[in-house]
Amino acid sequence: MIKKRIFAGIILIIGLVLGFGLFRSFSTGENVKNDIISRHPFKLGLDVSGGTHLLYKADISNLPQGGVNDSMDALRDVIERRINIFGVSEPIVEVETSTLSGVKEHRLSIQLPGVTDIEKAIAMIGLTPFLEFRTQSDKPVQASVGADGNVVIDQDSQFVPTELNGKYLKRAQLIFNPNTGQPEVSIQFDDVGAKLFEKITSQNIDKVIAIYLDGVVISAPVVRETISGGTAQISGTFTPDEAKALVGRLNSGALPVPISLISTQTVGATLGGEAVNSGIKAAVLGFLFIAIFLILWYRLPGIVAVLALSIYVIITLLLYKFIPVTLTASGIAGFIISIGMAVDANILIFERLREERAKSQKTADAISNGFNRAWLSIRDANTASLIVSFILFWFGTSLIKGFALTFGLGVIISLISATLITRVLLKALPSMDGTRLGRFLYNNGIK
Amino acid sequence: MFVIKYKKIFISISIFFVAVSLFFTLFYGLNLGIDFKGGSQLKVTYTNERPEVSQIKETLSKSNYGEFLVQPVGEKGIILKSRDLTESEKNNIVGVLTNSGKTALSIDSFTTIGPSVGKELKNKAIIAIVLVLIAIILFVAYAFRHVSKPASSWKYGLAVIIALIHDIIIPTGAFALLGHFYGAELDTLFVVALLTTLALSISDSIVVFDRIRENLRLNPGKPFENVVGESLSQTFGRSINTSLTTIIMAVTLAIVGPESTKIFSGILALGLFFGTYSSIFLASPILVIMSNPPAGGQKKR
Asked: Is the entire prediction scored with pTM above 0.80?
């Protein structure tokens, strides 16, 4: 018995220490705290901290079969570099694939915490300076009569893409044309690009080569002679600032794959702050209600359950900090619901305990038997919940993954807290067999 | 146990609620949110007074961006829903809302979901629900594989399926009602609420069935419906109390929790209530009815 009580005491002390550390990390004082718990802050999702989520679709139609994954990784690296230049803290750039009606789509998901201006965000990613060289085709220019009665010449129809694009770019530079004083962008190709450029220019003497940037012609010079060495000038109607920006974008790496924006989400910081505050309020209130209910209904074991539940909450929150789990509004909801569910195993045990005691057993035996009998039910019931959280995690957009993770984690931790903590604490209680007080304390309900 | 004694009444109550919910679902239909059909949602808060919603609608109808749904939120905010807008289209609309910068407002959130993403999410949601149902049925059939007499293990599975269908239909009907009167839209969170409900409802049913399994082993030869009744009364307190604690959390979350998860937690609370009902008052009575001999005459009352 003494051993059991020492063990129970150790658990309570550990819980107390962890709880204190957690509480300390919440308080925002002047003095900088440097303990291990404070150094791991909660990781808040975009919908809570405010920020922008952008989802781009990559156009891989011009890529060779095997090179898609490499190109997507290269795309991710380029975009990460660009974002880092602007100093966004902890951006998340991920390559995603999805299969929609048999067609595999490659996407890039970009999360920018703290950025609430989408326009700025899109500019930051710099929508593909997708540089491309096209040559004149033999086909006649297509023209049509537009809705307003004017003749529209489809300039694009006379150019065909070549293999040469921004992928082969070595570096770009801002120069000023010595004759006109106009800003120009000088580009230097790598070895492969230089050879391609030489080939293309040699085949197109006295023809036009169009330089496309993001699908728009910015310059269409006529080739006078074969150009070797791999340098080209883009002269457009740039202002010096525009030319400078273009150089910056080209140098940070031209995108190997053209991308287009398909979804955006922005959440202002105030809305997110409200979500955290009201989430905490709901968690605290709900916890109080449950604690009152447990103590009134299950009495002495009820107090044990409240202690176990508190330790459950502390452990869970600490795990969120250390794993770390990204807390979204739905993740917070999952955590709050999991507090209600964490009681489940305790209640199963207490109900069994009451039954075993009714068979006029000793309290100690009743506790052991209650646990053993309740275990099967606890295991089976929680397996079902775990199955669902796995499927939800798979189904997930980031919104649902957050819920699935906190919910699933809750199921596992509550299993541990109920079978380990509740058991140890219950066994350390005085049995008080045969006394009226004992009967009252271990009984439950309104009887 | 009164549940088994009056099983027909309890089953009738379930049938009634299912029928009413089906009626609402079919009659009012379900509003799909932008998660599933694609589109844009813009939430803004006016710094000073919010113009009349009807006035906002009128100004917007003059622009060429298709149909708008305007909903007031709180005292000064509005939510605008439309087809998927580009960034420049959104800025034009904000321009219209601010009366070209004369009325001050702040943008709380803006979400655009392309139609292909929406379609994909819809497919995924349907697959997730079907997967959960299949996984649960397989799990129940596996967990109760050693139980053969008097009800074989697949009958436990079948009783669980019926209860689960009940648990899906009722919140969906409630949602159709919410959608009709308050413009609530079916989004991914609704699917999550539904699946969570299924998980908890199934946990309840499994606890009861576990007890039936144990009691069948302890009391061989006892009439099946008595065993079921006894098991129900033994697990009754537990079923009610565990659901109660979870419902307390869901209701608290719905009342004081974050705006974005209010409908979610409300639906979850309702789902949990009916999920508990189905695991006590529907699954077990159905099990008894299914295991009765075909003649079915000997009702012990």
From this structure: no
